[in-house]
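agent: user wants the structure for G-protein coupled estrogen receptor 1 from Eleginops maclovinus. delegating to structure tool.
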Amino acid sequence: MYVDNSIFPAQINDSKAIISDFLLAENPQHYIISLFLSSLYIIFLFPVGFIGNILILVVNLYHRGCLTAPDLYFVNLAVADLALVADSLIEVFNLKRGYYDRPGLCTFMNLFQQGNMYSSVFFLTWMSFDRFVALTGSMGRSIPHPRLSCCLIWVSSSLLTVLPFAITQRQHAGDLHFCFANVSQIQWLEVMLGFLLPFCILGLCYWRIARVLARSQKAQDSPQPRPRRQKALRMISGAVLVFFLCWLPENVFISVHLLRGGADGGTLWQDYPLTGHAVRLAAFSNSCLNPLIYNFLGETFRDKLRRSFKLSRSISGKYLRVSALISSGHATCCRANQSAHLGLNILPQNWANPAK
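agent: tool returned. relaying tokens verbatim.
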């Protein structure tokens, strides 16, 4: 994950992303276009990602007693996506000098983004592998102990973030302006473990899944209703497809930058700052689109959401009825007190003379 560190000294980091200064000083038109793209992201995608991920967490935690393994994985994925969506508020408007003028902020932001990026891709990969196991029957219906799997994914994501950070910080202990995100070895690690390796695993899993489904359809004499596990597979497949469509541009951009090696003294972020900003927005868009996939393709989630709305409407109806009864009784008492004060008798006869 690359950051705009044009303000750091040139002797500290080799790669210098000077998006902010170049956009603002050299080409104001590019700055305006980047600001426009950021505004579109904030207006249309950010609310969907922020509210959608919170809705996934609330609905599933409310029905936590009937969580399936894919639901549990999507809940953890929503946690990682929600963190990235919140972090994007600072990142997408990193167009002016000032956001990363402090190495501490640069390091914190990239640790945060890197850990959640790893967790997102690892959860998607594990979910696909779980569906592969469920459909092929290699290890039973699904991978056992999904809670343990989630814990291991979070631990591995944290280790892949913290260990390289600790090593590079130790190597640059005396560099007060050092930010580890611009180290080429860190970028290679992100591309290999955060994109290429998951891509190979996912490709193998879905190739085997496609073969199993093709054989099962040939073996069926009559059309059968689609099983629930295939619907879960469709939802996970959509999430994986959106993930790679969103993250592919940035990984290609970083790979070209690394392969070029800065031999001509510049970087792709210097030569194409507008493209660099656009691929970052595309990467963050993945965390905003996952709730839409979960909502439209996840039948289980839609059922839980409908039950939650029915329950809330039922509770609201009961509350309104109770409030109406209380208000009616309060109004009757008020009218009685007012009648007594004015010497009037507007209550029924048996109320005024209960003995009759």
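agent: one observation worth passing along. Residues 4-25, 336-356 have pLDDT under 50 and may be disordered.
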